[in-house]
Structures are given as structure tokens and as C-alpha cells.
Amino acid sequence: MKRKYLHIAMFRAMDCLYDEMENPPEILDVFLTDANPYIWADHTTADPAVQADFDRSMNKKNIGEEVDEATAYNAVKNFLAEQNVQFAEWFTDVSRDKQNPYFVELFESISLDEWKKLCALVTEEEEARS
């Protein structure tokens, strides 16, 4: 998948999980609002701070312009772990356990096969927009 679509895939995965929750925690709502690429002028970017954090995280992991879905899955998990630590500073309704942060636990409820299907869907939709 193209790296430029990776943030969209991450957002869509987390947003779907949020929609399935009966009473989602505020921390997830705030994160998704900041990470939402669909509310900004350029739909492939999110809040500039979140987007910059995402790009830095992908650069640290040496994620190039093209990335396989398994590598992308792990890179997104690492990004979510970093974000969870930052967001948990403001919220008390989630565990502050850095070994098993809430965002990562939630993301891991998506199997690698489901992630691959989502990546293919996002790629197809984004390529059609181009």
C-alpha cells in the first residue's frame, strides 16, 4: 500500500471500532477528532500536529512510499502506542500502562486479514479519487 494512504487506513480502522462501541471513552473521541483526515482541507491529512507525529513515527520506522500491510500494521500499532501515552496525560478513564496502552489493545482487535482488506479498500477508493 502507498504510505500516503496509511493514515487514512488507521483512522478508518479506529473509527469503525469507535462506532461499534456502546459507550466509547472520551480519550478515543478526542483522538479520532484530531486524527480525522476527512475534516481538513486536504483529505489525506489530519490535524497538523497529529499528522506531523504520524509522519515522524513512520519515518522512524523507515516506512517508505510503498509498504506491505503487515509492516504497516505494526507501524500503526507503534504510532498508536505513542499517541496513547500523550493522550492519557489528559484523561483518567484509561489505563496508563505503557506496555499495553488502550489504543493498541483496541487496534489489535482487528486481525491482520481484516487490516489487509481495509488497506485494499482504502487504496481502491483513494486511487479512484486521483
Total count of helical runs of at least 4 residues: 6
Give the strand tally.
Answer: 0
Structural class of the secondary elements?
mainly alpha
Helix content: 55-70%
Report the order of strands and helices.
Answer: HHHHHH
Rg on CA atoms, Å: 14 Å
Apparent shape: globular
The unreliable regions are none
The portion of residues forming beta strands comes to under 5%
Describe the structure in brief.
Helices cover 63% and strands 0% of the residues. The chain is built from six helices and no strands.
Textual characterization of the structure:
Helix content is 63%, strand content 0%. By secondary structure, the chain is mostly helical. The protein has one domain. The longest helix is centred in the middle third of the chain and has 20 residues, at 69-88. The radius of gyration is 14 Å and the shape is globular.
Key traits:
130 residues; mainly alpha; 6 helices; 63% helix
Write the layout of secondary structure elements.
Blueprint: H1 6-20, H2 26-35, H3 48-60, H4 69-88, H5 102-107, H6 112-129
Helix pairs in contact: 1-2, 1-6, 3-4
